[in-house]
Amino acid sequence: MKLKEVDRTAMQAWSPAQNHPIYLATGKKFQVTPLTLLLFKRLLVIKFIFFYRYHKLIWGPYKMDSKGDVSGVLIAGGENGNIILYDPSKIIAGEKDVVIAQNDKHTGPVRALDVNIFQTNLVASGANESEIYIWDLNNFATPMTPGAKTQPPEDISCIAWNRQVQHILASASPSGRATVWDLRKNEPIIKVSDHSNRMHCSGLAWHPDVATQMVLASEDDRLPVIQMWDLRFASSPLRVLENHARGILAIAWSMADPELLLSCGKDAKILCSNPNTGEVLYELPTNTQWCFDIQWCPRNPAVLSAASFDGRISVYSIMGGSTDRLRQKQVDKLSSSFGNLDPFGTGQPLPPLQIPQQTAQHSIVLPLKKPPKWIRRPVGASFSFGGKLVTFENVRMPSHQGAEQQQQQHHHVFISQVVTEKEFLSRSDQLQQAVQSQGFINYCQKKIDASQTEFEKNVWSFLKVNFEDDSRGKYLELLGYRKEDLGKKVNFWESLMAYIDGLITQALLTGNFESAVDLCLHDNRMADAIILAIAGGQELLARTQKKYFAKSQSKITRLITAVVMKNWKEIVESCDLKNWREALAAVLTYAKPDEFSALCDLLGTRLENEGDSLLQTQACLCYICAGNVEKLVACWTKAQDGSHPLSLQDLIEKVVVLRKAVQLTQATDTSTVGVLLAAKMSQYANLLAAQGSIAAALAFLPDNTNQPNIMQLRDRLCRAQGEPMAGHESPKIPYEKQQVPKGRPGSVAGHHQMPRVQAQQYYPHGENPPPPGFLMHGNVNPNAASQLPTSPGHMHTQVPPYPQPQPYQPAQPYPFGTGGSAMYRPQQPVAPPTSNAYPNTPYISSASSYSGQSQLYAAQHQASSPTSSPATFPPPPSSGASFQHGGPGAPPSSSAYALPPGTTGTLPAASELPASQRTGPQNGWNDPPALNRVPKKKKMPENFMPPVPITSPIMNPLGDPQSQMVQQQLSAPVPLSSQSSFPQPHLPGGQPFHGIQQPLGQTGMPPSFSKPNIEGAPGAPIGNTFQHVQSLPTEKITKKPIPDEHLILKTTFEDLIQRCLSSATDPQTRRKLDDASKRLELLYDKLREQTLSPTITSGLHNIARSIETRNYSEGLTMHTHIVSTSNFSETSAFMPVLKVVLTQANKLGV
Amino acid sequence: MVSVINTVDTSHEDMIHDAQMDYYGTRLATCSSDRSVKIFDVRNGGQILIADLRGHEGPVWQVAWAHPMYGNILASCSYDRKVIIWREENGTWEKSHEHAGHDSSVNSVCWAPHDYGLILACGSSDGAISLLTYTGEGQWEVKKINNAHTIGCNAVSWAPAVIPGSLIDQPSGQKPNYIKKFASGGCDNLIKLWKEEEDGQWKEEQKLEAHSDWVRDVAWAPSIGLPTSTIASCSQDGRVFIWTCDDASGNTWSPKLLHKFNDVVWHVSWSITANILAVSGGDNKVTLWKESVDGQWVCISDVNKGQGSVSASVTEGQQNEQ
Description:
The structure holds 2 protein chains of 2 kinds.
Chain A: E1 2-7, E2 11-14, E3 23-27, E4 35-39, E5 44-49, E6 54-60, E7 73-78, E8 83-86, H1 88-93, E9 99-103, E10 112-115, E11 122-126, E12 132-136, E13 139-144, E14 158-161, E15 168-172, E16 178-182, E17 187-192, E18 201-206, E19 213-218, E20 226-230, E21 239-241, E22 248-253, E23 261-265, E24 270-273, E25 280-284, E26 291-296, E27 303-308, E28 312-317, E29 321-322, H2 324-339, E30 364-365, E31 379-384, E32 388-393, H3 402-408, E33 412-418, H4 422-437, H5 440-450, H6 454-465, H7 471-479, H8 483-499, H9 501-510, H10 513-522, H11 526-535, H12 538-551, H13 555-565, H14 568-574, H15 580-590, H16 593-609, H17 613-626, H18 629-639, H19 645-666, H20 675-690, H21 694-700, H22 708-720, H23 733-737, H24 744-750, H25 754-762, H26 792-798, H27 820-823, H28 844-861, H29 877-886, H30 891-898, H31 915-919, H32 929-933, H33 961-971, H34 973-980, H35 990-1003, H36 1023-1031, H37 1044-1063, H38 1067-1089, H39 1094-1108, H40 1112-1125, H41 1128-1131, H42 1135-1148
Antiparallel strand pairs in A: 1-28, 2-3, 3-4, 4-5, 6-7, 7-8, 8-9, 10-11, 11-12, 12-13, 14-15, 15-16, 16-17, 18-19, 19-20, 20-21, 22-23, 23-24, 24-25, 26-27, 27-28, 29-30, 31-32, 32-33
Chain B: E1 2-9, E2 16-21, E3 27-32, E4 36-41, E5 48-54, E6 60-65, E7 73-78, E8 83-89, E9 92-99, E10 106-111, E11 119-124, E12 129-136, E13 139-145, E14 153-158, E15 181-186, E16 190-196, E17 202-209, E18 215-220, E19 229-235, E20 239-245, E21 253-260, E22 265-270, E23 276-281, E24 286-291, E25 297-303
Antiparallel strand pairs in B: 2-3, 3-4, 4-5, 6-7, 7-8, 8-9, 10-11, 11-12, 12-13, 14-15, 15-16, 16-17, 18-19, 19-20, 20-21, 22-23, 23-24, 24-25
């Protein structure tokens, strides 16, 4: 393919290979013309100089460095026997004095020049009368001769240095004789001559690779051949190439590929042949003009230039291709450069250049028949999934030995495992072991011992406490407070009261408590005032307390305020963050279990938002106390550079331990993995996978999230482990069905469903027809299911996406019936249908994730309508999950029922259930049969984190039976921990679960509650709440029921939150709503106690009604009204929350 | 540590030019100057020949696996100016589509991120890049960028599908606003970045100029959730550059020289986690490089016949010059 064409110039020399950018020097033979330098890329004339008549022009890399600055030396052989050296950089720079040196030692025209490629300062020249000189550019004055002149004297038309041996030189003359010189011996060592004597040497070239081979080209029309000689057999040519019809004018052997030899002849052809075989590989499209010179571009191996007698130099690519557009572009470019007549500011006008109007006969030029060596990639290394590296290499063969050897060669591909993070892997291993052995205390202790920093030590100490008894007490100790000391401080209150005992009598004497109190206050005798007020009744006391707090400004007052008012939130919200330890200690000491986490959270959030980086890190401790994994992740990520594997490992260690701890101590539903945590965990899994630890990666990957990227990673990991490929069986689906919309905008629009749709099509490999949900390939093959990394304990969340049981119910290809909605649930994380089922359960997200199971269960047993009617709904996750761990018939679970008096009645004994449901061999509601049947002990240990969807007391009203059970479990942390460790593979955890499930669901409503005890102990905030966590079982905690007439408030509000949650998508809103759900408990508590004024309750009912009618703005108006007309302290606990909910509902339009 | 876990004797009769594992790392596709493409099942250290695909009439330069969500699809490109898309159906691999829209050797094929659908970019020695988009029912729509690289395009590599301004997946229901981009490298010593305009046309967005000879390969690093975009390029000039772009507009790219080798560098490949770069040079040398904490690129391993040790000195930022 012709790339470019230049007019008015004829002699050519490419800049050396080292040169960048590429230049082409041109000048006209035999005439006084400008020597022109062309910048190849744009074909711009860079510079030109006036010049003598000359015969030969070469460009040597003399003194060039590898940097490729324009340099080297232009060497011209002149008419008068002179050799002139020019400095191309000076020409380009526009300097006047561009001649480096010249010497006219030769007696006749210098027709041959060549630069030694090993010693670039050596130049050989040939002229008339057998004159050959070797010039040293370092000492240009006195040339050497290679030996005695050959006889008879004749012109030297060609001269060439050997490409392999630096002291070997060859010369040739038109008579057809070639002479090889050894410069060390200073004599000709061999003469090559054809017997026909008709060779008329026009070209001579050494083999680029083989030292003893060279070619000679003949200009004679009677013998238009190229002879290939091997000096070892100098009697006759090794090969004769007879591809030209008339005499050959020039040849050029590619340095980049020894199988490419260019030749141009008087038959107007330019051919590229393989001199090793004689085959013509390419014929360049030329016009009818002869070319007298042809040259490869040393730097760009695909480019060559040919000079023709019509005074043009054409630049070609031998890679073929279309020329049409190129020519147009070239014209554009040239004309644009000519728009500026003097683009280089030299003051000299550019010589006119014209684009030759070539007739566009064909547009496509085929490339070489054989791919040139330089595009044959010999080596490659590519990464693939799982830290594998695929490499291949092809041993370089001397090309002349040809293909035979290559065929004998074995062509291997190596698949290697790359492991770069040894420490990371070993630490990950330790973590896994700790998880498997449940040796968390030991693990934490080791971490504490190995801690480099105080902070690290603190964090691990805090984490460790989670696994010990009396965690709050231990937290306090870690904060520097001993429980006993605190006890003393608390006793201060008792002693205070005792001390003032005497004054009570005094007050009684006057009978006027109020004025006595005022007097005391005025006198700043606060204690007196308070004591008097106590005697004066609640109202007076309250007023007095307020006055006191208003008046007293000491720091301790705030604490006391909080203690008395039980308003820890305010403390946490307003305390000086320098005293965060104190605040945390206070919370640890006083806060009720249901607000404890939230308060720790709040404190953590404040610390985190503080500019002080030291405090920011301390927020982690608060989050650990709160058991808030997600926030810990967020905070930690902010503080640490999480990109390094080891720092990620640091985080994951803590997170894993904390999650475990949270399961044990706070019974939070840890199965809900936050977005951030999921991202980190999957990043971690990715890292493990990248180190080849596929199994470990699977173990750490959150298994209960429906985030597409995690599910895809899981699928990838599973299959990377070498599961059978379902694709073999029926690989029909995804490809044909994949409809990529035509037209770009359309395809973009299509994205909106794409991730989901794709995920769906992505998994089903073997299913035909594919089920509505997206399936794991594994369920195609029942045996494959054994390889699934999910344990039964996990299945409750995984069932919806992977309806495994399918193969076992061949009669029902879609056993889920309308349960389809459940199967699609992963795509709509919070499904509305579930929302009504548990009006009282505030933990929406978990509840919704269970709906799938219930449907699955229903379908399996055909027990009831497979729709998501409340009757078939599973219980709140807490009970279900906790019973799972009990195993069938395990005593702990059954004993757990019995505990809270008043609630047991609603829990039927397991025996009341139909036997089929109780003892079905493999039909655990969430157990895929395959998993039950196939022993998979080997795989199980990887699943070290059975999500225990136990709702925490934080998220749960204290009076709920579930939470009581939870607390029940808390009372016996040891057995629980052992149970929850690793679910037995065969554990059909579902039975007891269903036992409670159904009847509970049918009652539709939690049983009545009795008034919680803690609420009734306002004056003794000390030990009572503090012991809460540890000593709950001994206490009877029940809450009063919400009066029937107000129950509607709770159901309405919770229903609304459910609705919001189901349509809210961004995590922040969801968090807000979750939080609101929790905090509304305060309202329900007040309703239970009936402490709200009638105006407020009636206002709340109004709001509830407006919610019913979806008129949220009206609700908000009423809300404002209530807030503005009521006592702030009375409503401040819940009204803001309610506003948040209403606002969200309004925004979401649910 | 780099240790061979499987040595696959491909029985190719000539030079191998590419070897790629599928998405899961369970199947290996190879291609060779013997004009064939082979697929091996390499699970558990095995090497079962699944398919020996014949159809090209010249050396086959590259193979590329499509994402498995579209089925089992492999693209190959050859000196014969053709791109062939192979597909497994009922356990048999067959030619599914042949693209003969180039006038010269097709040197590189690369599938777009699966989020965009089935789109294949092909770079050819004719200087053009063509984009094949599957439009369903066996139809492929072709778009061509002519004269993308003078004298030829050697490599194409897609940018990962990242929605600008978001580190995590956008919630469903919202329209992902993907901007499709890819990089190409060619015989004009340039790396070019191409971006799909709203009208569906491809436009040259950037020209990255640092190499002084043919760009042999470009590799856009996988996204690991960071806002930085990274491209590795290697060249005939022996240089490997790491290009990074931090700004949101994606227009300011700065090169950092990873190393200057003494021979042509043919291929660069990022690990899936984008933290290791494998560099394959003309001297049959494969080296692994990693960025140290102080931002220097350090050679952590020399891989010879699939074996090598890994130096632990990365964290010290020690420069392992060779």
